[in-house]
Each structure stands twice: as structure tokens, then as C-alpha cells.
Amino acid sequence: MSGYPPPTRILIVKLSSLGDVVHALPVPCSLRATFPQARLAWVVEKKWLPLVARHPDLDEVFTIDSYGMRRRLQGWPELRRALAQVREFHPDWALDLQGTMKSAVITRWSGAALRAGFARPRERVARLAYTLKIAPASVHVAEQMLDVVAGAAQGQPLRRDLRFPFPIPDSVQAGVDSWIEENHIGEFAFFSPGGGWASKRWPSDRYAELADMLQQKYGLAAVLNRGPGERDMDDAYRRASQIRARLFSGDVEHLGAILRRARLVVGGDTGPLQLAAALHVPTVALFGPTDPARNGPYSSVCRVIRKAAVTTYQRSSRYSPAMLAITPDEVAAACGEMLQAAGEGEGRATG
């Protein structure tokens, strides 16, 4: 390991968002397998703390609340406390897997001798914080982050462990199970119609048509995820459908608990879809402008439908032609294939 001794303390900086943090969950697993004696810590946005709070290979988790800081000036003392905790951890390595100015400041402030990040981070200024800039060779972001870790090891072979652990408290699971029972939902498909911007979404009326097909052919109820600011999508769904979908809103742990009970999950390029894949729930992923090879669900029980000729990550407030080209019939067919592969196909249909 040229230039640096083996690490005794390693800091992972991956702040947000839901899907991105999910894709980083194998990093502590791989570090633990490679450096079993090292102490591992993670810096994450407070909003996403539940994703890593119970990770079996982490020793400490530090949070920042930049969302809260935007709402109130009192957030600055909290930020200073968080940065002090990071500094007091005294990491030998700091791995910036976010690649923004905010994450780079935390990485630099950590005081780590080795500060590694992407050679081409999301925000170019982040490069100034790194002592080691790594160009990943892999395509998928989950593997790209492990490429950064492997580059930091500088000759020490990294034992890649591509597990996505997300333990859910028994009390949370019990509460969600009670909600399912009280609402007489039975077996269900979980829909995640949201997305960071409209061009990644599939129209609500098509989810409504899909719900009708899945109910008629497989006897599946529909549970519709409602994220912040998504009430308009709920209204559009209800106007288009005679199916009474149950609306679900909850924090990350409750989201994970209901995903575990779904027979399958359908959605676009969204965090809930990535979490479902991490939990090994059968998924049908609908992709348009973004590339599923790079940031799609990392799962062996996933079917991806995509008709885009061009990849772009430019945000748009309109549905993309690629998403509009996906029909309910072909999504329903993919759902049937996934159900059959999971042992829930035609033999379980109720009419």
C-alpha cells in the first residue's frame, strides 16, 4: 500500500439521497471484509439516517441536517457539532462517494491523510479536497463506489461484498403488517409513481390501468406510494381508475417494511424501487432518459423496460417520449413474468 499505512479508521461520506445511499450499502460490507480490524463510520443526511443506522458493519454514524439548515438559522450550531464529531473520529481514510462541494468540505474537514473521491465528481470543485482521485472502471454506480474504495486500498485487494443490508426493527414491521391487515389488502403490488423530475415518471393513468390488469389477472391489490409533494399524482390516479388503491406514506423504515410484504414493485427511476431491489423484492423498473445499466436496480429479480435511444440526466418538467412509449400491456406482461418466476404466477390467479 504505497504511501499510506493500513487504515485503522475509515470515514464514508455519502449524504443522500434514498437510492444513492442504498447503492452505497455494500461499501461497509466490503471494507469490513478487507479490513476487519478497522473502525468504520458513515456521514449521512439526517433524513436518511435509518438507512444506515443499523448497518451491521458500521461502528459509528454521524449526521448532518442540511435540509433543516435551509429552513432555520439554528441549524448552523448543529452543523458545527457534526463537523466536530467527524474531526474527533480521526479517520485515516475519508472516502467521498457523493462528489459535491458539501461532501468534499466534510471530507477535507475530517483531517484524514488519505482523502479519496471520483476523478470526475458531480461538482468539479470537490476534487480540491482529494489526495487521491479515482476514475472508476465499472458501469453501475454501486460498483463504481467500490472502485473508489479499491483505488484507495492501493494494492490491497478489495474483497467486494455486494450485499445491501437494511435491518428493519420488529416493531416497525409489526406496525406495517397490522396496517395491511386492518385495510384488508391481502396480496398486493406496490407502485412507486414518483421521481425526482417528471421526465423519469410514467403517467398516473397508466398505473391505474396496470392496477386493473393485475387485479383481474392475479388478484393483486394496489398500494400506491405517496412521497412529499405527490398528491397531484394520487388525484390523477384516482380519476383514471375504478380500483381503490391504498395510499402509503411513511419514513424509510416503514417503506422498507411494506416493500418486504409486496409481491412485486413497479416504478420508475426512484429511491423506493432501489430499496425494493436491495430487499430482493421482485421489481419491474420503467426507465426512460436515465440509464438502468448505470443506476438501475442492482438485483437478480428485476425486469427493466426501456425504450430510450438517448441517455440524459437533464431534468425536465414534462413526461419523456421514452416513458410514454411504455404501454400498460407490456408492463403487465413483465409483471406476470416476475410473478411466475417467484412462484406467484397463473396458478395463484383468482380470476
Description of the structure:
The chain has 15 helices and twelve strands. It is an alpha/beta fold and 351 residues long. The chain folds into two domains: 145 residues, Rossmann fold (3-Layer(aba) Sandwich), CATH 3.40.50.2000; 179 residues, Rossmann fold (3-Layer(aba) Sandwich).
Write down the secondary-structure element order. Answer: EHHEHEHHEHEEHHEHEHEHEHEHEHH
Assigned CATH class of the largest domain: Alpha Beta
Helix content range: 40-55%
Q: The CATH topology of the largest domain is what?
A: Rossmann fold
Keywords:
about 350 residues; alpha/beta; Rossmann fold; six-stranded parallel beta sheet; 15 helices; globular; disordered C terminus
What is the fold's blueprint, element by element?
Elements (H helix, E strand, L loop, with lengths): L8 E5 L4 H7 L1 H9 L4 E7 L3 H4 L7 E5 L1 H6 L3 H15 L3 E4 L4 H9 L4 E5 L13 E3 L6 H13 L16 H13 L5 E5 L11 H15 L2 E5 L5 H10 L5 E3 L3 H10 L2 E4 L3 H8 L4 E5 L4 H4 L6 E5 L14 H4 L3 H14 L10
Parallel strand pairs: 1-2, 1-4, 2-3, 4-5, 5-6, 7-8, 7-10, 8-9, 10-11, 11-12
Can I get a quick summary?
This protein has helices spanning 18-24, 26-34, 49-52, 66-71, 75-89, 101-109, 141-153, 170-182, 204-218, 231-240, 252-261, 271-278, 292-295, 321-324, 328-341; strands at 9-13, 39-45, 60-64, 93-96, 114-118, 132-134, 188-192, 221-225, 246-248, 264-267, 283-287, 302-306.
